[in-house]
Design a protein that fits this description.
about 625 residues, alpha/beta, eleven-stranded mixed beta sheet, six-stranded antiparallel β-barrel
Length: about 625
Amino acid sequence: MNENAFDPTAWARLEGPSPMPGVEDRTEDRFSAWWDDAASARIGVVGSPNSTERMSADILMDKTKESLVGEWVAIPFMQDGVDTLTVGQIMSVEMRNDLLEGTTARSVVSRLGKVPASASEDLYRAEIQVTATFARSSKEHSGAVLPSMMGTVPPSGTPVCLVDNAFIERLFAKQTDDLFFLGTAYSGAKGRRILLPTWVRHFRSGGGGAGDTYHMGIFGKTGSGKSVLAKLLLLGFARHPETSVFVLDPQGEFSRDAWNLPSSDEGFRLKWGEVAEKHFGKRLILVPLRNLVLDSWDLFKDVIGQAVLFQWLGYPRGEKRALAAELLSVHLQKGGFALRELANREAFDEVGKAVCDENFVRRIYATSESATAKLQQAVGYWEVPSMKEDLWRAWSSMASLFDDKRPGTVSVSALVEEVVTGGKVVVVNLSREGLEAGTSIAAGSRNILWNEEIQGMLILRLLSSLRERGEIAYLKGKRLNTMVILDEAHRFIPRGTLDGQKEAIRDLLVEASRETRKYGIGWLLVSQTLASLHQEVVSQLRVLLVGYGLNTGSELQALRELSGGDQRAVSIYQRFPDPHAALEPSYREYNFMLLGPISPLAFSGQPLFLSAFTDPHSFLFANGLEGGSSEPA
């Protein structure tokens, strides 16, 4: 017999007192401190090899038929004479049968077509990623559970136990008010999934505060549940009394769902606006684009350059049109017109006088032939009633953006002031729906000019005003407490070469990602892509939530880099099912990989896995908001 082979008869010599004093004391006798029923919680024992980052567990035979990947487990032990508990997630399960590893054994199996009973001793081993360690303080310090560090490894044979909701409640009993639940821990065992505790903290110190400003990002393919998760996070921030939430809503998604209007979140009908008002006392301000008033002559020059007025007059884009816009702005201001008066017929008549004036045209065109042609074209339009009426409609649709006399309107600067004064949720609907196309916006009235350039100008003005307001507060020794949610962020912060308005918006957002943390302004970016987002902005994100769909090519590579090259974590992400491949809508799951300090179960930042709530009632119940408004799926 090989002298190095294991002799089963020697097992008896390993029984009896532990060769490591205190092992029994730190396991069996202390189980009741952590679990109500330690026997039913146990799924295995610490195996070998192990480290302070990853551990292995030998799974008990009666637990080998259970789905364990993704499950949370805890291991109690003693460290420095203190009751200690390390928590981790099962990343993989491996089965080994040493008797079948040899060629001879495989040959026997291939002939018999089955494994002989004498060779059926399969050994199951789970690999556990350690994510957090806790220690119980002394009785003099109330016996509270405090974060700790795993400075040694529990000995082999130490019990490994499943974590359940009762365990989580007991472990974080002192932090109950700070926790917010976005869903359950992702695992294959749906019937026993635990609520995954998360932090959604405001930016100041004190109760529920992080004491610092941070940026977040939600990424995933269309239909991955990004919007659902973003609205849950919105409410997580809204629950803090002094925190304001500012939503830039290019598709109208947040605006529609605030009061349960038809949206893309089929089956998840949460009236988040009503929840924010009823449970958190927030004032909800929904601003459609038609009610947003531009409030500077600089914006007028930008907007008139996009209007059809100069296009019809034959002024080409570029320097000619920019100069014409500058001259017209000066002319109207000298004429005593305020921005709010531009939509009046008198202002339009003054525009006609300007563009039909030879001196005006000659300042734009150097050659007399070109100037004469443009002058004749302008005069021709103004002298023909039908053409003049077309120009009036074009002018009024543009000028209405500056008319604060319309009912329900608010200027950009006034709206930003509403945001930063605290305790509000402000949503700006920048979509075409925000115009209610075809509906008059004032008595007898005009439709508003709309295109992507105008949307970009509004976004740029809103962001500039917000940053300026934050800088003013900072210079006065104060900090804001505002989370800005930007949906469809990939449209505004892409990599690559841009020009004009798009470049200005991206540059501002890149600068804001670096600078606004000191102002107390955080960003939550919602994007369909990770790889094509500007790299500097991604590098500033402290917390990332990555949903289904970024599992090929450059997207997967970007995810690998952000997860620190943790291939086991990436493998779990790649196993996420497509939500829309479910047999029925009610079976859909919105799974996310979480990176960064978002959960007390991973305060060192290891990747976690979340199944976001797909039922509004479950979300409301988990967060103690049972009376919140929602519609059945």
